[in-house]
Amino acid sequence: MSDDIITRLALIALQLNRIVPIFQIAFGTVGNIMNILIFTRRSHPNNPSFQIFFLVITCAFPPIPMGVFGALAIFNVKRLRKQASPQNNDA
Q1: Which residue, 45, 48, 53, 85, shows the most beta carbons closer than 10 Å to its own?
Q2: pLDDT, tens digit, for every residue of 27-41?
Q3: What does the DSSP 8-state code read for residue 30?
Q4: How far apart are CA 2 and CA 8, in angstroms?
Q5: CB atoms within 10 A of CB 39
Q6: Count of structural domains within the chain
Q7: What's the predicted TM-score (pTM) here?
Q8: Distance between CA atoms of 77 and 72, rounded to whole angstroms?
Q9: Is 89 among the domain residues?
């Protein structure tokens, strides 16, 4: 029974690792674009705090896809290694 639960949890983790990064890219990119659009409006005063926050948002934009694609690449490499390695239980 416990092996069945472990197998199911591993399968759930595998499926989540495939699906969740897609939503992270989508929502992260859309959220950052919306923040950039909001903070580039002329209605905001030329306050240094707004300028610093805009700079931080702009600098945080590239790591979202890079981090998620990096995690997907690492996950894919681990999966390919597991498939390529022979299951030798004799040794």
Answers
A1: 53
A2: 888 888 888 788 777
A3: H
A4: 10
A5: 16
A6: 1
A7: 0.53
A8: 9
A9: no
Look at residue 45 and give its three-state secondary structure: coil
The answer to whether 64 and 29 have CB atoms below 8 angstroms apart is yes
How long is the chain? 91
> Are 56 and 36 a contacting pair, CB within 8 Å?
no
**Separation CA 86–CA 68 (nearest Å):** 29
Torsion angle defined by CA atoms of residues 59, 72, 20 and 33, in that order, rounded to the nearest 10 degrees: 20
Domain that holds residue 52: 2-78
46 lies in some domain = yes
State residue 51's pLDDT score: 76
86 located within any domain: no
| Residue 70 structure tokens | 């990096």
Is 48 inside any structural domain? yes
